[in-house]
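Quick start: what a row looks like.
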Amino acid sequence: MVNLESKLKEIEKIDRNLPMTSEINEWKKRGGKIIGWVCNYVPEEIIHAAGLLPVRVAGLSKEVPFDDATAYLYTTTCSYVRTCFQMRYDGSYDYLDGFVLASNCDQARRLYDVWERYQKTPYQYLISVPHVKSREAIDFFKRELIDFKTSLEKTFGVSIDDDKLRHSIRIFNESRSLLRKLNELRKADFPPITGADMLAIINVGKKLPVEKFNAILHEIYEESRKAQPVDAVKKPRLMLSGSCMNNVNYVKFIEDQGCVIVAEDLCTGTRYWWDKVSEDAEKDPMTALAERYITKFACARMTPGEERFEQVVALAKEYRVDGVVQEMIRYCTPTAWERPWLRRSLEEAGVKVLPIEVIYGAEGTGQLKIRIQAFLEMIAMDMKDYYR
């Protein structure tokens, strides 16, 4: 009998041991190949259709000292990029047979350069991603994806036909549907899972075969649907928005101040699973993939920004958010550019915003504690039924 609490503890335990999992070990023992990817604009479906295991390259639920990486990258390179390179440098990602990066920003592009030059994996590939959502951009990206598919076929001696692609699209769409259903439960006054739980689930899922992840998601959803809230005290409902976030402990630290995080505008949250790929049998699967990845819930790199701002505001309203923590990794240029505009859009919609600048993977600090508590008290002034 599956129990929600025990299942979440199992997820938490796996998260503590990332970036390795027992499934990765087993995959390698069977002679399987593993492709590390960076950025949500890399279509996992194509890697999966090639019979390879896609694994997200990311940091941990703690800060990783990146002194070695700083010798190869500027100190003004964001700490996410330096952390990823440091973990490759110290052997944490030695199990990778390939590395694929989408050119989402200049700093990630630099990660590809130093990875290829100094810590090369047997296979490497860079996918160019347009910054707009036009028909021309979709056509360009489709050509990029066809070139990527061809490269995988030649390198690994496989054939990726339309049937394999459609099969992979269905499986990843199932994953997105399950994540959406689980996330819908967070709309409740007393959500059965926390923001830290949700982040840990996605962290772990990106280091597992998608079939195994889907089975886990189904179990967690069914148990969450039946679960009684552990804490029936009404708390301010927050959303996290901003740069890449993998640190479960950081999210838990925020929630421990007396709030619940019910939504995320992060590439490790809503932006990852929000949109499905079309399964229309009449549509070429490469076209369907290009359309989904270019038109999906955008991050700060996409222009114009107004469409994204409207979507973030709509997400905040849908999840009845009282405040948004605008988290930005220091030197994250795309997030820094959009930050004041997005903040204005949220505040005009009546949503309070707390901007925070962090080092990727950082732990909670006394200063952060004071700022979060002050922010929650600001929210509480308008909501007399909240406190405690």
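That is the whole record. The first strand starts at residue 34 and ends at 38. The chain has 16 helices and eight strands.
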